[in-house]
Amino acid sequence: MAERLQKILAQADYGSRRSCEEIIRQKRVTVNGVVAGIGQSADPERDEIAVDGKPIRRKLAFTYIALNKPRDVLSDEGDGTGRLTTARQLLPVPGHLFPVGRLDLRSEGLLLFTDNGELANRLTHPRYEHTKEYRVLVEGHPDRQVLDSWRNGVLLDEQMTLPARIEVVEETPDRTWLRVVLREGRKRQIRRVASLLGHYAVKLVRVRVGPIWIGQLKPGEWRYLSSKEIEWLEQLVQKPRQAARHPRGKPQKRRRRRN
Does residue 122 sit in the same domain as residue 232? Predict the structure, then answer.
């Protein structure tokens, strides 16, 4: 069955789909001895696909890991200086694993790792709107107006955020724990929105990505996903993309072109 080359390369452990597209752009990929181009498809069962002259080998089984990222640990590879610990260094597992989404340096919680580039792309690309759930400790006590503003959408970088689920979980004398469920993941979105609304985020913990929960993992601990969890993820990414929505969640109307 013919598939896009970048998908085939990602499944063969050459990185994410985006990095595989770059390999193709660099003219390092050939199909049946002919240099391949972006957008090209091939049948890995019939065609001879090679990178840098070496035939690829498709992975028959992928690795899926859940990690509770501690505070002050980088989600990605960082600047290469080695001054900070990376989440990947906490996993004593061989192979090229990359994180599914990111958490900023001060944030904690669930971070998925896999060598399945296609699945990672489907889980992280904003157009698929997969949900992520957080526990957020903010300063003060947000009133109903603030919570409703957050729920309906806030102007951030000249674009409204998508509607979100915001619930009060617990209040202390001077702080509030919130449950926040998002369908998007802009850079430091929760912290920035909380600050815009006048409530600084003191602590942020991601507890769920799609159908996968952090469970009883303590900071720094990790586990392999169960076969059932992997099945959930595969079913999730096979669903069609969400319809485009405007900032308050209603379907956008298509504009007619004027001649």
Answer: yes
